[in-house]
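Budget justification, computational time. The allocation requested in the original proposal was used primarily to generate structure tokens for proteins on the priority list. As evidence of use, we reproduce two of the resulting records. The first is shown immediately below.
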Amino acid sequence: MTRVVLFGAPIAIAVSLLLNTGGGPELPTASPRATASAAADTGADPFTGADDEERRELDARVAAMPPGLAAPKMREVTWKLLASAEGSTLDWRSQYGTIEDSDDGTGYNAGIVGFCSGTHDMLAFVESFTGDHPDSPLAPFVPALRKVDGTASHEGLDPGFTAAWKKSAEDPAFRAAQDLVRLKQYFEPAVRLAKLDGLGALGQYMYFDAMVLQGPGAGTDEFYGIRKAAVAEADTVEEGGDETAYLDAFLEAARAVMKSKKNQQDTSRLDTAQRVFLEDGNLALELPLTWKMYGDTFRIPS
């Protein structure tokens, strides 16, 4: 799905970690002292700037919490829920090689988290991957990706780019690189922060989905901006608030951002999926789950 510009460096770091090239440090972790109110004040990632002691405190704090989406079974549920929103399927493993232009102004959209040629994240990912795999079918397209970055243009990409992406997806290393970006850039930061906010599995998924869709930035139309707007309307559980009320505020903030963008007018991923789970009181995302996405019905059995 489409999103705003992402930070290129963490993506490059994630791929570098996967490929064991020694090209970057660990992705930043969180500070337990960076509370929801601090995040509301800054609008930025509340974990940025945490020192080693704070990170150790965080690790211990999160480790003592229920696994939530981090449990293997629930992680699989997460990938299926995201695939229904990104690709209208539960078969998320089929999405590594998908690539299309939906005429939404963001160029080509591809892969398991919807890398976009017009929003920088695809460029950052492909640059990093081809840097370690110069023989990749995607390597010849890096100059063109640089030129079209920030636009919907296909100049220099057609013909051949879509075939190169699909061919690359046959490579286990390319699929694993996508996996690691999904994990390190989106899933782990979202789940970690949701747990510190006192949220169960549904809230953890809402954070993850919003971070994938809008990017992990601090702008008003990015993930931390959405969270800031929600915190301004309702207290998190950690602050003593009601979980349902807070998640309702988060959904409303996320929906307002989607409706503000011409390319995100279909809010099914919120209205007929996350909102349904919330109204059912299924804060733990207990199975079975049934929801609709873009008119299609999906189900994950017990």
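The second record produced under the same allocation is shown here.
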Amino acid sequence: MTTAAAPLTDVFSPELRPVLRRLGERPLSEEAATAQGAVWAALAEAGALRDADAVLPVAELLGETLYRGPYLDTVAAVEALAALPGSPRTEPVLDAMRRGDLAAALAGPDRRFVRCADQADLLITVDGSEFTVVELDHPGVRLSEHADLGRGGLFSVDVDAGVPHVLSGRLADPRALTDRIRSGQAAYLAGLSRGALDLAIAHARRRTVFGRPLGAHQSPAFRLAALAARLEAVRSLVHREDEPAHALRLARELAVDTTAETLQLHGASGLLDENDAQLFYRRALTESALSR
């Protein structure tokens, strides 16, 4: 784990994860909004917004807890804007994003929905190499939240033609931004798979069938072991970062397979709203569809 990611283990501790998993659900309570702000402050304080080496480990932590926030979009935006020639307009925005004073949401032709736009300050729209940055609280910017399977956090965004640009221009390397988005999402899905697998293993140890723990029976034990092996293989590919499209594809498949197995092992109880098994499955489906 990187230096920046290490302090976050307290924020994302096993005791707090059941609470953090519910922060994306709507309607958002005042307590949940406060908790979201505290998590964002912890990310900024740990240096996770300015340390490129922290992105993938932090993304895995976010996935394990099912935490939905603007972190992945913000760090991808920081990397893309940092590659531009320095300018008096760009540097203050970059500095504010690295400090955590500004959060970004990304939109583009390959993204039908914008994640966590309600928690961001800036909307960055990318079309090929062209990009524009606008303030999300401008009256000409409208958010429409979708009641998705993952229980909230996905938006469509409409921007009027007259909304002033905070920044605009051409990206130095559009492919690099796409690769960063893919790598971050693959790491998030790998973390989501690990969280679901931990939940399944814990249930298999507790649940007794025919006088023995469920996990002591050959069939479920072998299935969980196979998923654990796949998870390590996917994580290895994700952290190599040389094939982000392939890593994302495998991470998507793993997330759906692992959460489906977790839901199946829990049986009917896994379908209850208070059970996290159904939430992992919901998020696996929606998060797998976000980035191509």
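A brief technical remark on that second record: Residues 134 and 166 are 5 Å apart (CA to CA).
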